[in-house]
Each structure stands twice: as structure tokens, then as C-alpha cells.
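Quick one:
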Amino acid sequence: MAKRKLVVIFLLLVAGTGAHAQDSSLLNMLNDSMAAHPKKTYIAGTFKGEYIVNMQTIESPANGNLNFIIQHRFGTLNSGSYNFFGLDNATLRLGFDYGITDDLDVGVGRSSYLKTFDGYLKYKLLKQTEGGQMPVSVSILGTVTDFTQDITDEAFLNTKYRTAYSGELLIARKICSSLSLEVTPTYLHYNFVPTPQDKSNIFALGLGGRMKFTKRMSIDAEYDIVPTGQAVSYSVHNSFSLGWDIETGGHVFQLVFTNSQSMLPTQYLTQTTGTWGKGDIYFGFNLSRNFNLKKKR
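Output:
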């Protein structure tokens, strides 16, 4: 009887050891599978809003969300005390951006500068992930603008010749929780140019970034480069803009300093004639408010 008990105990120990080894083997296989196929975690909040200052970011309204934005620029600071250093004058754009999906949005706007209407589509091609699997986020942006202001020496222009287009590739990376950078190669096409020396097709490059220094505040900057010899008649200067973002509840308020009066790529890239060195600085603000129009299930 004693021998039989010892045999039974031995068999139970062997079975337990085998089961433990099998469980460990299965656990190791599961860990190996997870390591070989890690779950993608996308980086969120590369930029707080849809604009660095004038230049659009990779960000878009979420599916079913409507973003309302007011972009306001006063006159130049060097316009003197008679114009209250530019505060007597103003250029304004009102815009609406709607998220068709989380990756696709559409926008429309109206600017007082040359009484311009604009519309755009933006689609997010790639999303930055944690762990370096995808190091950047990439969006493609297409914009069309049409100015309607009556100009005496250009009264013959119809809608076709008042229309311009831009295509932008927005490439951004969130370096850390406080710093994000973006580079934007841009193609512009004008159906009408002032002189034969001006190019109908123009290439430009935008550089921008955001530095967050408190939980609700950040400094933004952008610099747009248009190589010489393309927009000749306007005596174009590169656009340089600074912004101070302040997050307050459901909206973002941004104070702006820029040498560009317009806020649309077909205008500020090729029609910026002022320089910071001469005090051609437009003070203003961007104010955006987001509304969720889609009922939650």
C-alpha cells in the first residue's frame, strides 16, 4: 500500500510539472507574438489647433465636429498714431471646418482681403506612432481661392482668372510633449498673373513649430520661403509669423504678430510685401471654437 501511494504522488508531481511547463511555453509564445506584432498607439495632439499661425497643421476636426475660426489682423504697427498704430484698420477671415471622418475634413471661408472666398479639403495620409514605427504624421491639403473685389484696371477679369489653387503636403512630428515641428512643401497655381515675368506655377516651403511652456500656453512660429524669380511684380518678402496660444475652456485664443496681411496660402505666400525690419507688422488674433454636431451612441 505504501508503495502504491508513493507511485501516485510521483505521477501527480510529474503531471503538475508538465502542466506548468506547458503553461510557461504558451505564455512565452504569447509574449513572442505580442512582441512581433505590437499594438499601434498613435500620437495625439501634435498641434493644439488647425493653424500654426497662417499655415495649416496636420490636425483636423474629429468625425462630426465643426470648428469655427475667426482670424483677425489689424493694420501695421508702423502706420503711426493717427491710425492708432494699425488698430483703426482690420482684415478679417471667418471660416468653418467640418470633420467628415476622423481623417478627412472640409473647410470654407470668407476674407475681407480682396473679398476672397476659399474652400479646402484635407486628408490625413499617415499618423505618427509611439515606438518609432511611423516617425511622422502626413496630411495632404488642397485649397481653392477666388477674389471678388472690383479692381479698376482688372475689371475685365472673370471668375476663372480670379481663381488660384494651392496643394500642400503637411509633414509633422511631435518631438516630445512640449515641442512639435512641421514642414510644408507647397505648389501654387494662378490662372492669371500680373506680368509675363510672374510665374503661373510657384513652389514654396513652409517651416513651423510649437513650443508648449505651460499646460495651457504655447509659442508658435512659422517661416515661409518663396524662391526669388517667381512672383516678380509684388516684390515678395518671405512671411514670418509668431503666435501665443492660450487655451481657455472649449476654445483656443492666439495672439498673432506677422508681416502678412492675408491668411490664405495663395495670398500670403506671394503677396507679402512688408518686412519686420521696417515695422510692417500686423498684430491680430486667431480664435477657434469647436462644436460636436454628432450625437454620441
